[in-house]
Amino acid sequence: xxxxxxxxxxxxxxxxxxxxxxxxxSVPVILQxxxxxxxxxxxxxxxxxxxxVTKGVAPFCxxxxxxxxxxxxxxxxxxxxxxxxxxxxxxxPGFLSDISKLIRHREIPVDVACINCxxxxxNGYCSYNIAADLTQPAVEAARIVIAQVNKNIPYLYGTAMxxxxxxxxxxxxxxxxxxxxxxxxxxxxxxIGTHIAAEIPDGATLQIGVGGIPNATLNGLRDHRHLGLHxxxxxxxxxxxxxxxxxxxxxxxxxxxxxxxxxxLGSREMYKFIDRNRxxxxxxxxxxNDPAIIRQNxxxxxxxxxxxVDLTGQICADSIGEKIFSSVGGQHDFxxxxxLSEGGKTFIAMPSRxxxxxxxxxxxxxxxxxxxxxxxxxxxxxxxxxxVYLRNKNLAERAKALISIAHPDDREALxxxxxxxxxxxxxxxxxxx
Length: 433
Prior knowledge:
The protein is globular. It has 15 helices and 24 strands. The chain has two domains: about 5-175, Glutaconate Coenzyme A-transferase (3-Layer(aba) Sandwich), CATH 3.40.1080.10; about 185-430, Glutaconate Coenzyme A-transferase (3-Layer(aba) Sandwich). The strands form seven sheets. The protein has a seven-stranded parallel sheet with strand order 4-3-2-1-5-7-9, sandwiched between helices. With about 425 residues, it is of the alpha/beta class. Strand 19 (about 320) and strand 20 (about 325) form a beta hairpin.
């Protein structure tokens, strides 16, 4: 490979280029820093990235760099959130599975792809599967590929591989992926996880996210049998179920016998477990998030979260009012794909209240809030107070069900709002024996 310093490698970027940076816990920060050092000589460099886990604000996100770098986030995270909120960047909305296609078809152009990959194997192939998600289509579309060749990146199997000869410039480094440690779930998270676990049958194939509620749900599945994994993020919670044999992928139809994901984020113990583990396979989101593929697995289960849910079952998961917080990500892909699966179930799981004490079940979404999952798709909604099924209910019945799992102190106000909105049909529900 053509090894050089980070500054030499990033000198290949020209004004007006679109530059993609790999995400997850494998953000090539050394390359980001080198690009930021060129702010005085560059103009209108468009920065593209997806789900990022970093230790601070992205190096190019400084107001004084606003004419040098234009942030076009594909999934807004903490490293760029405030910069976008201040108006120096923006978000490109899109279902994650579709964004993969938009990059491949150059509707979202990528001139330079910056990745974090393993050293080459005996055949010259480097793995960047720890974040295959949007990285694979970006690498395929780019004219220039700049790689941090990192001896601490696990070598993972799947399609996200690049031959050393296809790397334009290489920068040697040994930065390990960020070690993500999650504390024990709270009582509220345990209650939510228990409600969800009770609805998941043996033999189900899981899509599950990151954090306290997913971890609590996975803890509740320790006595299940023959579970499968087809998800975006492989985490410590699923890795433990793989270790114990609860996840054996024996009932899956797509990639039977193997866990499927598009990225990995967790502890170093997990990274060590998946390194050169042929029971795990990683694909880009054009595969993992394709509803036509998701539905192939019987009893597909999708577990996602929300910022707000209104009384009709509309799910806001990407914004706080008008302020963009994240994006649609894979929520729609998996909610739709799992709903088409034979025996499939989809869950929106959240505490009944925010940390500030505001109800997350609301009469109406906040002005400007985005609808990520429509009321036509919502199945189960879960809080610490219970689990309700909305799919077969009319609007008034949905409101009644959702109010039953709201925080007790919020139910009276929500009940008044529902009565005002839905009228007699709602009052009739209270008259039923």
